[in-house]
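Hello everyone,

My group is preparing for a crystallization screen and wants a predicted model to guide construct design. The compound we'll soak is flavin-adenine dinucleotide. Before spending weeks at the bench, it would help to have a computed complex in hand. I've included the protein sequence and the ligand's SMILES below. Output in structure-token form would be ideal because that's what our pipeline reads.
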Amino acid sequence: MSIGRTILLKLADSPFLNRQATQRAFVKRATKRFMPGEAPEDALRAAQLLKAEGRGTVFTKLGENIVVPADADAVRDHYLWFFDQLAASGLDGHVSVKPTQLGLDLSYEQCLAHLFALAARSEAIGKILWIDMEGYVYVDRTLRLYRALKERHPRVGLAMQAYLRRTQADLEGLMDVHPIIRLVKGAYNEPAAVAFPVKADTNRNYFDLSDRMLQAAAAGMCTPIFGTHDIELLNRLIARAKAHGASDKQYEIHMLYGIRDADQRRLRSEGRTVKTLISYGSAWYKWYMRRLAERPANVWFVVKSMLG
Ligand SMILES: Cc1cc2nc3c(=O)[nH]c(=O)nc-3n(C[C@H](O)[C@H](O)[C@H](O)COP(=O)(O)OP(=O)(O)OC[C@H]3O[C@@H](n4cnc5c(N)ncnc54)[C@H](O)[C@@H]3O)c2cc1C
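Reply:
Good plan to model first. Here are the tokens for the complex, ready for your pipeline.
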């Protein structure tokens, strides 16, 4: 792992920097590169522009590790309101949630109850509810949540992280529920005991896991979503999909708003299903630091914003 990435991910956990950054106009300006605005309406407006290009959207309200049960209730209620906006919008839009934003640190049962409420509403309007994968300590509980949800609501998807050594076994363990999986490389600061410290190993694992999912997709047992901006890797996966006999409609490509935008448009124009994940909300500090850590050169954008 690069030193820049490690330092930025450590800084992501600083409450002091969180307070400082979110009050500074120039940092706020720099976030514009990765999010259209803090209000849900900003996200919905940006999604309409993407729709005109044939791109779908996944929305997420930023925030994680809530510490008061009422905050989890508020997040659930927000998303229930948001589903009404989605239903009225005509967008191919879906929602992605973090379990700790719905109180997983406080109560597994309560978090599951919130997720059931969201999955039911999401399903009623024909959408997929996405569950993000957070830090390593949450993996077991998140897999349990996913299995419980998937038994009642088929249209629920789960993010899995290719940097974790355990993911191959976890993926096999889920095949019986015909999972919908968004495979990502992984955004947290994990020790070498559980995560590959060398990027090439993560990339190799990403390819192997994707290959397995494409094989299962061709047999109708899995829906793979590639959540990556790694174009070289995507090109190899598109070739593997063909080799396995998985059609273009049997997998999707998801990327983040503001990253590799030209490639998102190109992939769409080549007939792939492309969705853009749009974040909104005021709790952007940790999430923004993770975006900087993915490409430490991004720190330059903050400096440029500071200079006006
Ligand atoms: C749709 C989606 C959902 C995600 N959900 C989760 C989740 O639930 N849990 C989780 O742990 N992680 C999640 N992530 C983040 C993911 O784990 C990676 O940290 C992130 O996608 C960067 O890895 P990469 O696959 O793009 O590959 P990389 O090898 O990191 O990047 C490939 C190329 O993409 C470009 N790029 C990548 N990141 C950036 C950036 N921040 N700024 C500018 N250019 C960049 C660069 O050109 C880079 O060379 C998600 C990512 C996506 C796209």
